[in-house]
UniProtKB/TrEMBL annotation:
Belongs to the enoyl-CoA hydratase/isomerase family. Keywords: Isomerase. The keyword Metal-binding does not apply. It holds the Pfam family ECH_1. One of its GO terms (molecular function) is isomerase activity. This is Enoyl-CoA hydratase/isomerase.
Length: 251
């Protein structure tokens, strides 16, 4: 199976699907990109021949910069608020689809993983990184809110204290710390990232599909709360965010 769209390519190799993100320069989450992403996840989820899904990036230095805030700014604060709200809700749907899927998802993180891309990555069942992989939640800097399920996943992955360290401080987390904290399953040479991800996928595809699916469901049960609609609206209705975003996207 080979399915191409503007930003995402899906390929299948013996029960393993690779969902490759390719929106230059940084796989930013524009509305169009997110709609394609949802369709891609739905497609691999509904394909009974697929057991394992790898999400990777065509961009060599980055997995994703998260929301493409520049494309979501609009002409005024009200339009910006609507655009960002819709985009965050779409990310939540992607996170939810990955977590509820019977397939096992492996994230191959080639580099920077920022904002809502962290949420998508944490929704995966295993994450493999390289020495160039790092994580960053810049919401405090530009006045946003990780209302897409990312906070729930952070707490589950690394606990409340460490979740606060990452979500409140604007600090960047390097691959060594991410490995120590249990965010990353493995850190491998960058040139071998996809090969290792595929090797792990091949190994898992030889196991009991039902056992993997039910185990995933039991582990994920109760982790993801409902979409933080009211909290996000309150944040976006604060006029300060428009000014902060204008300064942020100039960096």
């Amino acid at each position: 199976m080979g399915v191409e769209s503007l930003y995402i390519k899906i390929k299948e190799f013996n029960h393993i699907a690779v969902v490759e993100l390719n929106r230059s320069p940084a796989n930013g989450f524009s509305r169009g990109f997110l709609m394609e992403f949802i369709r891609a996840i739905k497609k691999v989820d509904e394909d009974r021949s697929i057991k394992i899904v790898i999400i990777s990036s065509k961009q060599s230095q980055i997995f994703s910069s998260g929301l493409d805030l520049r494309s979501l700014m609009g002409d005024n604060a009200d339009e910006m608020s609507r655009n960002i709200f819709d985009a965050v809700h779409l990310v939540y749907k992607i996170v939810e689809k990955i977590m509820l899927s019977k397939k096992i998802f492996i994230g191959a993180l080639s580099g920077a993983t920022i904002g809502s891309a962290v949420s998508v990555a944490l929704a995966c069942d295993l994450l493999i990184g390289s020495p160039e992989t790092w994580f960053w939640l810049p919401d405090p800097q530009y006045g946003g809110l990780l209302a897409d399920g990312g906070i729930d996943l952070l707490i589950n992955h690394i606990g409340t204290s460490r979740a606060k360290m990452l979500a409140l401080t604007n600090d960047r987390i390097n691959p060594q710390r991410a490995l120590e904290w249990g965010i990353l399953y493995r850190v491998v040479e960058k040139g071998k990232l996809l090969d290792v991800a595929f090797s792990e996928a091949k190994r898992l595809s030889g196991y009991s599909t039902d056992t993997l699916s039910y185990t995933k469901r039991l582990i994920n049960e109760g982790i993801l709360n409902s979409f933080k609609c009211d909290e996000l609206k309150e944040i976006l209705n604060n006029r300060e965010i428009y000014n902060r975003l204008q300064n942020y996207i100039k960096l």
